[in-house]
Specification:
With 176 residues, the chain is mainly beta. Helices cover 14% and strands 47% of the residues. It contains 3 helices and 10 strands, in the order αβββααβββββββ. It has helices at residues 17-25, 63-71, 73-79, and strands at 29-33, 37-43, 50-62, 83-92, 97-104, 112-124, 129-136, 148-150, 155-162, 169-175. Strands 1, 2, 3, 4, 5, 6, 7, 8, 9 and 10 form a 10-stranded mixed beta sheet that branches. A hairpin with a 6-residue loop joins strand 2 and strand 3. It is globular and about 45 Å long.
Length: 176
């Protein structure tokens, strides 16, 4: 069991043993521990699903390139084989928030899922950090479509920490 305090197997430079122990004490289970990423999960108290937390590092790409690959909806459809549709329904440039309609394909026999998401982006050049924060929302103008299952409860926070400037290669990330 990886949830004990025996850290002999613990090799991650991304998450200290103390942080790992605190996560495990709060119900997180370490699923994978590699040199460049660590995955934790814990039961979602509101459902039968899990909540995941990933810590990772890329040395061969910049935080900015990774960030813009994630938020460029047109480009996303070209590289993400699970995206059936993604489009911006409304945008607030002042708050850097978008209302997105996102359809995700799943293999048979599962039905595709559709999401109505609020996505906010943050770029802090002084601290060399970036964030993508998403959560589901409801809007009577965009009801579920008949050939999809509407996902009503979803949230995601991706935090990027550049090793230097955000345009230079090398960054750590945390995804929950």
């Amino acid at each position: 069991n990886n949830n004990n305090n025996n850290n002999k197997w613990w090799k991650s430079p991304l998450v200290s043993s103390d942080t790992k122990n605190k996560l495990c004490q709060n119900g997180w289970e370490c699923l994978v521990s590699k040199a460049d990423f660590v995955i934790f999960r814990k039961s979602n108290p509101n459902s039968t699903t899990y909540i995941y937390k990933v810590f990772g590092r890329y040395l061969d790409i910049s935080a900015a390139d990774f960030f813009f690959t994630q938020v460029d909806n047109t480009y996303r459809k070209s590289w993400d084989k699970y995206v059936s549709e993604i489009r911006c329904l409304a945008e607030n440039s002042e708050s850097k928030q978008e209302l997105l309609y996102w359809v995700v394909k799943y293999p048979y026999p599962m039905m595709q899922r559709d999401y109505l998401l609020l996505r906010r982006t943050i770029i802090d050049r002084e601290k060399n950090r970036m964030a993508i924060i998403s959560r589901t929302t409801s809007d009577t103008n965009w009801p579920p479509v008949s050939n999809s299952v509407r996902v009503d409860e979803y949230s995601s926070s991706m935090l990027l920490y550049a090793h230097n400037e955000i345009e230079r290669k090398g960054f750590d990330y945390q995804l929950t």
